[in-house]
Amino acid sequence: MNRHRTKIPKQKKQNYRFLIPDKVLFQKMAKPEIRALSLLNEILQVSKVCTVNEGIISADYDEVVSLHLDVQSTIESDLSTPDSIYRTSRHLMVKVSNKTNPDRPWLDVCIIHEREELPIVDSVVSFVLMVESGFYEMPSTLIQGIENVRLSIVELQKKKELESRRLYERRQREEEQKRLELEQKRALDFDFECEKTRINSLTWKQLLDEHYRETRISNKLEQLVYEYRIEILGGLE
After folding, report:
1. Can you spell out the DSSP letters for 13-77?
2. Mind giving me the DSSP string for 88-123?
């Protein structure tokens, strides 16, 4: 990937080759995508922040970090498996780089395209407008990516290991909580079945006496028993 960035060339409005170098891919795009691409082209032509090279929109976040959005790869991914059960969430192909270390690999950032009914290029336009506005209301994943690329490779690796360990521990706690809840439900179901058997063995008078005597409900089992007696008594309160 060529990381050298050049200013957007002054081109005709209908010429999108600097954004979509692949002619075949361009021919596959639907009309709504083309219209969104036209708007993107107009914005980029007057941009003082963004540059484009080989279909990649780049902008400096600060003196250390740069952002890069691969328009062609974004559209290509979006068109690859439309309406397929194997399709992942529609998202922009964004990377962040550290300008103080040009040899360091760029870091991937996942920015979800949230409006399924809209063309993916609409999210590209929103990204560029966010950059033009001074990075107003950045996605949390982009903020995280910027923070990560500032770290050294060693620091980032330690951070990922810590996050992975915390994720594992959280999942373990969640699994334990699910296990306890399942055990409690099974115990409740067993106790309720026992109570139903007991209630079914009562005479009508015994059932009425118990119903009017036990009016305080302090737990889930007592609530279930109360409702079961009501059901037998035909809704009698």
Report:
1. TT--TTT---HHHHHH--HHHHHHHHHHHHHHHT-SS-EEETTEEEEESSSSEEEEEEHHHHHHH
2. ---EEEEEEEETT-TTSPPEEEEEE---TTS-HHHH
For the beta sheet containing 107-112, the strands, ordered from the edge strand earlier in sequence to the opposite edge, are: 51-53, 56-60, 65-70, 91-98, 107-112
DSSP assigned state of 218: -
Residue 220 CA: distances (Å) to CA of 152, 168, 197, 217, 236: 54, 32, 18, 8, 20
Whether the CA torsion 143, 144, 146, 147 is positive or negative: it is: positive
Q: How many beta carbons lie within 10 A of that of residue 137, not counting itself? A: 7
Count Cα atoms within 13 angstroms, Cβ side, for 196.
11
pLDDT tens digits for range 168-217:
999 999 999 999 999 999 999 999 999 999 999 998 888 888 888 877 88
Q: Is the pLDDT of residue 11 over 60?
A: no
pLDDT at position 86 over 50: no
CA distance 97 to 61: 10
Cβ(210)–Cβ(229) below 8 Å: yes
Residue appearing with tokens 């062609």: 72
Euclidean distance between CA atoms 68 and 166, whole angstroms: 30
For residue 38, pLDDT over 60 is answered with yes
DSSP three-state, residue 153: helix
